[in-house]
């Protein structure tokens, strides 16, 4: 009995740790290192943040591949899976078509570093490694440990709420911001649950961030 409780409790505690680390620990560790080594925040913020983000992604992939390897299997998607992926993007487009989804800080940093190689390192966060990390945490880790396959979709609701909470620091405490990101998180959670794979939600998340910032991307990297 004790062993059974331990086996069911340990993954949940580890999942809570991963979520907490994403919400608070990642940037705390980064800022601590920058301060201890007396490194310039302007020059080293994104290089160090990207390094720790990639390391965190690697840890999560190793953990999830051991615990839930099926979500990483590249299997032929059924027609319904393709439909769900397109539908997810379409629903998000209809809801967020007038909203800029990349945080103001990152937008300003991209503009600031426009003529610097650091612009590429800044862009990695919202367009590549950021979406991968968020999907691994809020879909891969959270939804496979709490209320999995709940008939009331509590796994999707919890994923949506925590995903939204994770974005409040970029926009400030606002019910409107919370609602918007919760809706986005819920759509991505449904996509993960229905396709049984982490890849569609990652691709939709990346594609959406890139789509909404395409004018900014072309201005930063292609217009001179």
TrEMBL record:
Keywords of this entry: Membrane, Transmembrane, Transmembrane helix
Record GO terms (molecular function): endopeptidase activity
CAAX prenyl protease 2/Lysostaphin resistance protein A-like domain segment(s): 119-210
Single biological process term from Gene Ontology: CAAX-box protein maturation
Bilayer-spanning residue ranges: 12-34, 46-64, 84-106, 118-140, 152-172, 202-222
Family statement drawn from the similarity comment of this UniProt entry: Belongs to the UPF0177 family.
Protein name as annotated: CAAX prenyl protease 2/Lysostaphin resistance protein A-like domain-containing protein
Naturally occurring in which organism (per UniProt): Streptococcus equinus (Streptococcus bovis)
């Amino acid at each position: 009995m004790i062993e059974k409780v331990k086996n069911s409790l340990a993954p949940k505690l580890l999942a809570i740790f991963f979520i907490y680390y994403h919400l608070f620990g990642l940037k705390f560790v980064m800022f601590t290192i920058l301060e201890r080594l007396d490194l310039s925040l302007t020059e080293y913020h994104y290089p160090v943040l990207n390094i720790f983000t990639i390391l965190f992604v690697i840890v999560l992939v190793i953990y999830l591949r051991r615990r839930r390897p099926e979500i990483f299997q590249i299997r032929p998607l059924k027609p319904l899976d393709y439909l769900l992926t397109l539908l997810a993007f379409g629903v998000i487009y209809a809801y967020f078509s007038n909203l800029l989804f990349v945080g103001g800080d990152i937008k300003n940093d991209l503009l600031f570093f426009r003529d610097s190689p650091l612009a590429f390192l800044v862009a990695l966060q919202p367009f590549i490694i950021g979406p991968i990390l968020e999907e691994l945490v809020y879909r891969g880790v959270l939804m496979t440990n709490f209320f999995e396959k709940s008939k009331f979709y509590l796994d999707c609701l919890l994923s949506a709420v925590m995903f939204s909470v994770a974005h409040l620091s970029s926009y400030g405490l606002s019910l409107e911001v919370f609602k918007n990101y919760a809706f986005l998180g819920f759509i991505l959670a449904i996509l993960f649950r229905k396709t049984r794979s982490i890849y569609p939600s990652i691709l939709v998340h990346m594609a959406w961030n890139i789509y909404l910032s395409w004018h900014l991307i072309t201005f930063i990297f292609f217009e001179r």
